[in-house]
Amino acid sequence: GQQLNQSPQSMFIQEGEDVSMNCTSSSIFNTWLWYKQDPGEGPVLLIALYKAGELTSNGRLTAQFGITRKDSFLNISASIPSDVGIYFCAGQGYGGSQGNLIFGKGTKLSVKP
Amino acid sequence: ETGVTQTPRHLVMGMTNKKSLKCEQHLGHNAMYWYKQSAKKPLELMFVYNFKEQTENNSVPSRFSPECPNSSHLFLHLHTLQPEDSALYLCASSQVFGLEAFFGQGTRLTVV
User: Fold this and answer.
1) What is the SS3 string spanning A49-70?
2) Which residues lie across from B32 on neighbouring strands?
3) List of chain A residues whose C-beta atoms are within 8 Å of the C-beta of residue B101
4) Cα(B73)–Cα(B62) distance, rounded to whole angstroms?
5) A16-74 pLDDT per residue, tens
6) Which of A61, A102, B106, B107 has the fewest CB atoms in 10 Å of its CB?
7) Contact assessment for residue A92 and residue A48, using Cβ atoms and an 8 Å cutoff
8) Smallest CA–CA separation between A112 and chain B, in Å?
C-alpha cells in the first residue's frame, strides 16, 4: 500500500531560525496537505496543494508540491515559540480508496526562546 | 475555533462499559471520518461516511460501531474495549469526499 515517509522525526531549533521538513511517497499523490497539531488538540490544516510544482505560502509557512508528485516540503521562516507542535503531511493518491488521506508520522518541532 | 466539535474531550471507561463518542460539524460538509491516533503511529482511518452512507471500514474491530444519522452528526459507539484501544479519537469532515479534512479537537480515551 501507499506509504509516506516524513522527516525529520523531531527538530530542536532556536527562535528565529528557519525550519524545513519533507515527506516522500512510494507512489504518486494528487493532493498534499500539511497540518499542525498542538498538544491535546486535533490537527489544523495549514496548507493544501493540488498541482505538481505548486508553491503556496501562508504567512511564514511555505509548502511545495514536488514535480514528481511523490514529495512535498514545508518551510517555516523565522520560527517563534508558538510554532511548537507536531507537523503532519498527508497525501491522497490515485486509485484504491480515494477517500483515504495517508498521513506521515509527524515532525515534532521544539523552539527554544 | 473549529467547525467540528467532539464530545466528550476526555473519557475513561472500563472494559465492560458501553460509551459513545459524538461529533458534530457546522461546516455543511458531506463527508465525515473517524481516525485513531496512537503514540508514535500515523493517524489511522477507521470509518468514512459520505452523504450518510458508510463507504469505508478499515478492518476495524466490531467493538467499535459507527453511526451517522445525518451529514452533520457522527457517533462512535464503544463496547467491551481493550486497554490497547486507549488513544486520541479524532473526527473530521470534508466538503467533498476525499479532499482536505477539517478535524475536531479529539476525544482522549483511556480504557482501564
Assistant:
1) ECCCCCEEEECCEEEEECCCCC
2) B49, B93
3) 33, 45, 90, 101
4) 20
5) 999 999 999 988 888 999 999 998 899 999 999 999 999 999 999 999 999 999 999 99
6) A61
7) no
8) 23
